[in-house]
Design a protein that fits this description.
The structure is a single chain. The chain has one helix and four strands, in the order ββββα. By secondary structure, the chain is of the alpha+beta class. It has a domain of about 70 residues. The strands form two sheets. It has a two-stranded antiparallel sheet with strand order 1-2. Bound molecules: zinc ion.
Length: about 110
């Protein structure tokens, strides 16, 4: 499996695997990576191979992260309720102290 696109492995290919990349138009690059664009199989250079495969990965990840984000937002909401309850308790406890302090200033 290793080094399929190097040395003797590409000698039997057209022009020893080199040519002009159909997507980035670079010349003298090895066009040995098979990619499927619009249901048509073409051979591109290794850079275009990464770019195309990354785009496919991003499209897949977008669909996955959309569902994961929805799940995460639902998970985050549950601890927020407990934090709000704690804040309400703190507000009632501390709310009495400034109330008494305000009363003393009003009396004066
Ligand atoms: Zn290319």
């Amino acid at each position: 499996m290793s080094k399929n696109h190097r040395g003797k492995g590409i000698l039997d290919k057209y022009k020893r695997g080199r040519g002009t990349c159909p997507t980035c138009k670079r010349t003298g690059v090895k066009i040995i990576h098979e990619q499927e664009i619009d249901k048509q199989k073409i051979f591109v250079c290794k850079i275009c191979n990464v770019v195309i495969s990354r785009k496919e990965m991003q499209l897949k990840k977008k669909a996955e992260t959309m569902t994961q984000a929805e799940q995460k937002s639902a998970e985050v909401k549950t601890p927020d309720v407990t934090v709000e309850e704690k804040e309400e308790r703190m507000a009632t406890e501390t709310g009495e102290e400034p109330g008494t302090a305000a009363k003393t200033t009003e009396d004066e």
